[in-house]
Design goal:
Distance between the termini: 40 Å
Number of helices: 14
Oligomer: single chain
Shape: globular
Radius of gyration: 19 Å
Helix content: 25-40%
Strand content: 5-15%
Number of strands: 9
Largest sheet: 7 strands, parallel
Amino acid sequence: MSQQTVLITSATGRIGKELVARLARNDAIRVRACYFSADKADQLKRLGADEVVHFDLSNADTWAAALDGVSAVYSASLDPMLEGHLAFCKELGRRKADIKHVVRVSCMGADTNTASYDADTHASRAGASIPLMLQHYWWGEKALIDEGLTVTALRNNFFMNHLLKTDCASIAAEGWFSNPLGDMRNSFVATRDIAEAAEVVLTEGPERHGNKFYDITGPVPQSMAEIAADLGRAMDKEIEYRAQSMVDFEADFGSTRAEFFEYLTNGFYTRSSPDFYNLTGHKPTSYYDYLTTQGASGETGLEELWQGNLWKKGQDAMKDAVETSAS
């Protein structure tokens, strides 16, 4: 069997690293892993990447070398990089004779092809629209579909650890974290599970998974007190959850992220989906197990918690992205 070359964008991210390590074990796949910073290239080689290549969504000059000879693409991008992703979709469309499959990381939310969400109708607040970040996730999928590409979307719940990364300093020094989620339970998902789902979809290919859309969640919805208890058990120290008002949260991170978090407080992400089990044959990873066991890349979730994060208190990371158009 000849190898197919799979391009993994965002390969140094939490999902990307796991996917590189997983696909590297498959002799039928040649893994071409993308890096933005050159100092991450050796890490990707250690994880098993056959090739590493510089790639930048904001620099089209880096795309040709990355895509040469590629038949499948794992596509993921940071929220503020939507405009670059939309442009990259057009490049993929120009190569659709060669690109047989695109697996896109997305989010449960504003899709209109498998559900009937109205972008102008909020789930729980009269007169408001679906959060812009969720609309953006759908635009990211739709841009690929509109180019005539064969797409599989992994529509994920909120990442385990992602909501805690902005409080790493207070967790480490004082044993507490805060956010507005309170008693509402959400089925947070382990990033390693998203990578496993992507591995299955890419390995089994578009014949089985083309133009399919999977909701990937955790095994059980959890409240913030339950998250704090699991984290404390993993760290062997007491961790306290401190409730925060939505007003204060918006002051910390801006209105675009705050309106997304409002969906986390209203039960929209409570459901535990069977899609991960149907793809892999086993339950998703629990939060405590994620924290205390190693993924394919060799890291535990607790080690991953302390790594870099887009969101910083006092900074609105989405300030410029709100101007992006879907067209």
